User: What shape does this take?
Amino acid sequence: MKKIALALLLGGLSLSAWAKMPVVASFSIVADMTREIGGDRVEVVSLVGPDQDAHVFQPAPADVKKLAGAKVFVVNGLGFEGWLGRLSRSASFKGTLVEASRGIQPLKAEDAEHEHGGADHDHGHDGLDPHAWHDPVLVETYIRNIASGLSRADPEGAKTYAQRAADYTTRVRAAHQWAAKSFAAIPAAQRKVLTSHDAFHYLGKRYAISFLAPQGVSTDTEASAKQVSRLVRQIRTDKVSAVFMENMADRRLLDQLAREAGVQVGGKLYSDALSGPADPAASYLSMFRYNVETLLKALTKR
Ligand SMILES: [Zn+2]
Assistant: This one.
């Protein structure tokens, strides 16, 4: 008798674990949003994990397998996932495809002919800037799209998804209001950032921050001393307040840049992936707050 009860219990447990709807997300940021909205009803796997580079992702046979078993596939869209078509075909995915950015007004990608538009930040060839998640107002659209996609695939959970989406939207909106108020306290002319990472134009548009690309510095190779003096000139001419050169690893060159240009250099902005759990950008909202705080600190340091 006891044995039967135990078997039933175990059966019940494994059934409820199995009953979570399998969802695949293309990368860590939409994976986090999907977990926020799906809660306990979904099991979300991210193809490109935290701290991984979406630009160099190549789907492996294991990814094809994951997708083949999924009910919902959440992607960013706007050309972010250049490998999307090939992968869904090889997995013969027949579930619900959710394009999280669907319906937003996209920005154009910076002209590829610019020297800085290195191949390391190329997401596709449709000429759109895919990094819309850096604008929390647009993320409200992401949330709506993900919630409605989950509901289509799992109508029984629709009420839960709507409830959780509303709650998440409230938190995202609060983060936006805080950011708007904080940036507004900095004179507009001072909101100029030079960065090698060409991913923040949506954030810049929302809060009137100019993100300038370094001119004459290749993103593929390590900067030289000569390129640094060119950067110093650009920083002075454009009156840049803060500099984030993530691909410049040479400490001496960074110090030289900071000294000669009289700006603070460094700090990390998270763009295309969340951090691991031990670092400060493990969720979309903590990433957004961390980036805003890092920018505020750099822009107000005078
Ligand atoms: Zn990117």
